[in-house]
Amino acid sequence: MTDSPKTAAPKTAVVTGAARGIGLATTRQFLAMGWRVVMIDRDAAALQKAASPLSGVDPVLCDVSQPDQVAQMAAHVTATAPSVDALVNNAGVADFGPLAETDFARWRTVMDTNLDGVFLMSQALRPALCDARGAIVNIASISGLRASTLRVAYGTSKAAVKHLTLQQAAELGEFGVRANCVCPGPVATKLAMAVHTPDIIAAYHDAIPLNRYGSEDEIASVITFLCSPAASYVTGQIIAVDGGFEATGIGLP
Ligand code: NAD
After folding, report:
1. CA of 91 to the centre of ligand 1 (A)
2. What are phi and psi of 150, to 5 degrees?
3. 12, 51, 125, 236: least surrounded by Cβ within 10 Å?
4. 97: Cβ below 6 Å to ligand 1?
5. Which residues belong to any copy of the Ketoreductase domain (predicted)?
């Protein structure tokens, strides 16, 4: 007589900014790996449109910059998901402007989502991630690796996310939680196309050794790899996924 094989419960990933762009591509890749995904976004219509054709997802309306909403989201997720095996802090906003033209309201809008959102989400789901010995992937940007004349708020927020990742790796390693940071190069999403002028697009093509923008899936595949058992000894890393841009030393357009 043999024991009947036990079927492991599917793993759960929480992905913020999941209604479109890199977050939606990441959601689809987790589903293809057999994971469940809690799709978080603050855009109700986009979230419903993205989630409705997918199975294995739990769409949750939540603005990651709002502590009350994040607390409610965490209560819901920990009550409904068997485990939280990965948190992908992907929700972000872009704002291109120099110090001279960026008023405090613009600065705060960028920091609220890009930095505070990562802090709040990670803190709220930390106990569940520790229970599952899970993984965190924070999405920064090549704009957090290089300074430029155009990105005082955006670039600073992404550089801070890089360091927050190192803090998380240092603090959570003893619980078996890994934390890594992905810095995408340009991807033609709604966020990027709102700020990339034709001049910036042309300059990026020239500056990137692969001479093109990346795709959402090319970023998502690195994110899902970092959450998978194949990356079980990878933590505290800042990984540029940028067609070689960072290798060249050429400035940001
Ligand atoms: P996108 O605009 O296509 O998608 C971002 C999603 O995040 C949207 O669905 C939006 O509603 C959601 N969102 C924004 N603020 C939110 C908040 N406070 N709470 C909940 N949801 C919120 O953008 P994308 O290009 O897919 O960007 C994803 C991440 O990748 C961002 O962090 C961005 O900074 C980063 N990134 C993008 C590029 C690029 O060229 N596209 C390059 C480098 C880094």
Report:
1. 5
2. -110, -5
3. 236
4. no
5. 11-204
